């Protein structure tokens, strides 16, 4: 095939592993991820909410690798299976607080870059510092999803 994809045995597509092809760029993304984690902690964003945002962004981007990883992380941090089961339709479920709803809507806006700009998340339940930290979280999660999807990271039982 043309481009970075190659046809393998059994018609399985694979791509260039971006982290191995340009490890210094990957390390820079890891540093950005660490900086975003610090910003989230400073802003007082609950670790379970961080995982919910990572999961929702990964759902929107179709990243199975990140979905599996962050669902496991959320469960390990005490998230419930009921909430995880409905995060894809969070606006339909009564499982989420106003702050969680605002954060999920903000993450969706950052991921989709809706035009004209939607501000359904802007209900006052997030501080300016939290809005910034969650926006950065969605931005870096989008980057991680694109690395994983483009590199076709294997996701098998």
CATH fourth-tier homologous superfamily: AhpD-like
Q: Which shape, going by the Cα principal axes?
A: globular
> What fraction strand?
under 5%
Given helix and strand content, the structural type is mainly alpha
The CATH architecture name reads Up-down Bundle
Topology overview:
Layout: E1 6-7, E2 13-14, H1 18-21, H2 23-42, H3 47-61, H4 64-76, H5 81-86, H6 98-112, H7 128-151
Antiparallel strand pairs: 1-2
Helix pairs in contact: 2-7, 3-4, 3-6, 3-7, 6-7
Please, could you describe this protein's structure?
There is one protein chain. This protein is mostly helical and 157 residues long. The chain has one domain: AhpD-like, CATH 1.20.1290.10. Helix content is 62%, strand content 3%. It is built from seven helices and two strands; from the N terminus they run ββααααααα. It has a two-stranded antiparallel sheet. The longest helix is centred in the C-terminal third of the chain and has 24 residues. It comes from Rhodococcus koreensis. This is Alkylhydroperoxidase AhpD family core domain-containing protein. Keywords: Oxidoreductase, Peroxidase.
């Amino acid at each position: 095939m043309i481009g970075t994809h190659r046809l393998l045995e059994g018609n399985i597509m694979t791509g260039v592993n971006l982290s191995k092809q340009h490890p210094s760029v990957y390390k820079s993304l890891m540093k950005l991820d660490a900086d975003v984690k610090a910003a989230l902690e400073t802003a007082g964003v609950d670790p379970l909410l961080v995982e919910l945002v990572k999961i929702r962004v990964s759902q929107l981007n179709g990243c199975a690798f990140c979905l599996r990883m962050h669902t496991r992380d959320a469960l390990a941090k005490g998230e419930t299976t009921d909430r995880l089961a409905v995060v894809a339709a969070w606006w339909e479920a009564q499982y989420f607080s106003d702050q969680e709803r605002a954060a999920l809507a903000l993450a969706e806006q950052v991921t989709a870059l809706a035009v004209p700009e939607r501000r359904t998340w802007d209900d006052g339940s997030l501080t300016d510092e939290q809005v910034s930290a969650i926006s950065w979280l969605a931005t870096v999660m989008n980057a991680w999803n694109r690395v994983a999807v483009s590199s076709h990271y294997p996701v098998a039982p």
